[in-house]
Amino acid sequence: xxxxxxxxxxxxxxxxxxxxxxxxxxxxxxxxxxxxxxxxxxxxxxxxxxxxxxxxxxxxxxxxxxxxxxxxxxxxxxxxxxxxxxxxxxxxxxxxxxxxxxxxxxxxxxxxxxxxxxxxxxxxxxxxxxxxxxxxxxxxxxxxxxxxxxxxxxxxxxxxxxxxxxxxxxxxxxxxxxxxxxxxxxxxxxxxxxxxxxxxxxxxxxxxxxxxxxxxxxxxxxxxxxxxxxxxxxxxxxxxxxxxxxxxxxxxxxxxxxxxxxxxxxxxxxxxxxxxxxxxxxxxxxxxxxxxxxxxxxxxxxxxxxxxxxxxxxxxxxxxxxxxxxxxxxxxxxxxxxxxxxxxxxxxxxxxxxxxxxxxxxxxxxxxxxxxxxxxxxxxxxxxxxxxxxxxxxxxxxxxxxxx
Length: 404
Hints:
Oligomer: single chain
Helix content: 55-70%
Largest sheet: 2 strands, antiparallel
Mean pLDDT: 76
Distance between the termini: 144 Å
Strand content: under 5%
Low-confidence stretches: 188-198, 210-224, 383-390, 398-404
Number of helices: 9
């Protein structure tokens, strides 16, 4: 991961916005205008007297039992859909979405990844600076080395040879008492032709005659003193010149030492950069995993929310329809339960009288014993209506004369 991509990579990873942890905290349930949507109560209590054996409704028992069965069907249908809604709500609430990994608190994964990214970027900048400094010093030092090497190859050998020859000539004249280097043949004589000894004093005298008028009292001692004054400074200057042409000059050694230190600093900065990169890579990978897991949970939570809303949307029409049927049946049952119908099984008084008259007319033998002209005993649960009261018994017949 390049340092200049690290910040972009970090910023490209984002957290999805999670819905509320509890369904009851969603806007559908908290807004006054839509709060009723979250109501999953069927609101259909079972009438206590609908329980078998709770109350004897007489001849109206079959009608009442039918109403109670209808009431129970409405209740069960509503509660079956309600159970699905409750299960969806429980499933939604059970999905636990943790705290946002993208938050900026110091203990958050994002904060840790951002800190590692900052350290990585700073380490890169430090390494670039160290590399540039080392490159500059080492490049200049290398250029100086190449320059000195060229000078060395072109001039050093000739300057040293000339200096050695000068030392030998001065020694021959007695003006140099230092170490005389050997020539290629192992001799300590100068490098000129050996057939004729070089006379430095004569050479200097010839040179003086070409420029100056000879002195009247010319003496060799004066010439030797002059030459003594010339030899040492000349040899020193030639040796200094030779040293300046050496490859490993003090200036070059200074650059070499600086290059060594700068390279060591660059190595240390690069090692720090590698460690910072590895640290960032580890923390960033962990942050990415945390964000992906978080976003998966948010997606799962959003899916559960959509399923819960869909369950409520399916529940409400059923709840409305079953509530309407329940209200109709309960109203009818309540009339029997409170005695408002007075045993007329839901019929008006006029309807009950007409029904009894028709029934009595069509099934007279069912209610009256025609032979004795008396009412037939009957089971109140087997008849829709009560028979009319029995007629009074016939008056007693007059006394008959006693039999003979």
